[in-house]
C-alpha cells in the first residue's frame, strides 16, 4: 500500500515536468519562427514594391572640346583660352520597383548642361566670353542592386533630348555701339552654326532609399556616348570637332507606395 502511494505521488510530479518541457519546446519553436520572419524578410522585402516620387537636385556639367570648334589651332595661337563647367539644376519624376536585393528605376528629368569659355586675344587685348547652356528632357532607365537594406548601386542609360533655342550667349569687354553690334552678330552666327542633338548617356549611381519614410538620395555620374553639338556648314570658320559631356549630380527625392 505504501509503494502504491509513493508511485501515485510521483505521477503528478512527472506530469508537471513533462508539461514544463513541452511548454519550453513550444516557446523555443515560436521564438525560432519569429526570428525567421523578422530576419531576411525584414531586411529585404520578399514582395514586389512599387513606388512613385519626385526629386530635385543640382549637378556640375562640362562639355569638352568646344574651344577647338570656335578657334583653329592649326597655326600658332594668338590667344589664351579657359573652359569652365557650370553648376546646373535637375528636377524630375521617377518610379521604382524592388524585390529583395534587385530593383529598377524609370525616370524623366529636366536637366541642363553648361560651360563658359573665356578667351583673351593678345593682339587686340580683348576678352571674349561665350556661354553655352542647353536644356534637356531626359528619360532614363536604371537597374539597382541593394548591397544593404537601404543602400544600392545602380547602372543605366538615358537619352537627353534638347529643346528650346538661344543656347549660346556671346559678349566682349569692348565699349561702344559698334562693338556691341559685332558681338550680337557673332552670337547669331554661333547659334546658327552649332546645334545640339540627342545625347545618349550611360550612368552609374550610389543611392539611399528608405521605404518607411519615403526619402531617397543619390549621387550620379554620367558621360556622353556621342557628340552633343553638330557644326553646320558655315562661313565663320567654326569647325566640326569631337565634344563630350561629363556630368555629376546629387538629388534628393520623396516617393509614395503604389
Explain what the structure shows:
It is built from 4 helices and 11 strands. The chain is α+β, with helices and mostly antiparallel strands and 258 residues long. It has an 8-stranded antiparallel barrel. The protein has a two-stranded antiparallel ribbon with strand order 7-10. The chain is elongated. The chain starts with a helix and ends with a strand. β3 (102-121) and β4 form a beta hairpin.
List the helices and strands and how they pair.
Elements lengths: L1 H37 L1 H4 L5 E16 L2 H4 L8 E21 L2 E20 L4 E23 L2 E13 L4 E5 L4 H17 E3 L2 E11 L5 E9 L5 E3 L12 E14 L1
Antiparallel strand pairs: 1-2, 1-11, 2-3, 3-4, 4-5, 4-6, 5-8, 7-10, 8-9, 9-11
Radius of gyration: 33 Å
Averaged pLDDT: 84
Tell me the number of strands. 11
Termini separation (Å)?
A: 76 Å
Which outline best applies? elongated
Helical content (DSSP H or I, runs of 4+): 10-25%
Structural class: alpha+beta
- Major sheet summary line: 8 strands, antiparallel, barrel
Output the number of helix runs.
4
Biggest sheet: strand arrangement: 1-2-3-4-5-8-9-11
Give the ordered list of helices and strands: HHEHEEEEEHEEEEE
Strand content is: over 45%
Low-confidence stretches: 2-6, 12-17, 23-42
Task: Quickly list its features.
258 residues, two-stranded antiparallel ribbon, 8-stranded antiparallel beta barrel, alpha+beta, 4 helices, 53% strand, 24% helix
